[in-house]
Specification:
The chain has five helices and three strands, in the order βαααβαβα. With about 90 residues, the chain is of the alpha/beta class. The model has no long low-confidence stretch (mean pLDDT about 95).
Length: about 90
């Protein structure tokens, strides 16, 4: 059974910095997911800060074995209830 990997990204720098946008036209989260998905033992999905529930729905997390969190500029924008949801799933 493949490892279900979710790559979460803020997707902030890609929107604000042209150099970053030029290097990652589909976002850093998608670049990371694409590289990981080259391994047949890994399935990937992505989520970003801008999505409803920051893309981290109960269902999405329940179907995730590995969560990769890519962020450093907008952690303060992540809603507390989503942080609690992610922490609960990690502890599970």
């Amino acid at each position: 059974m493949p490892i279900r990997t979710l790559v979460w990204g803020e997707n902030v720098h890609e929107q604000k910095n042209q150099v970053v946008a030029d290097n990652y036209p589909n976002g850093m989260h998608n670049a990371i997911a694409k590289l990981l998905s080259s391994d047949a033992n890994i399935t990937t999905s992505t989520a970003t800060l801008q999505e409803p529930e920051h893309g981290l729905t109960e269902d999405k997390l329940a179907n995730t074995d590995v969560l990769i969190w890519w962020g450093h500029a907008a952690h303060g924008e992540v809603k507390d209830e989503i942080v609690e949801r992610v922490a609960k799933r990690v502890w599970e």
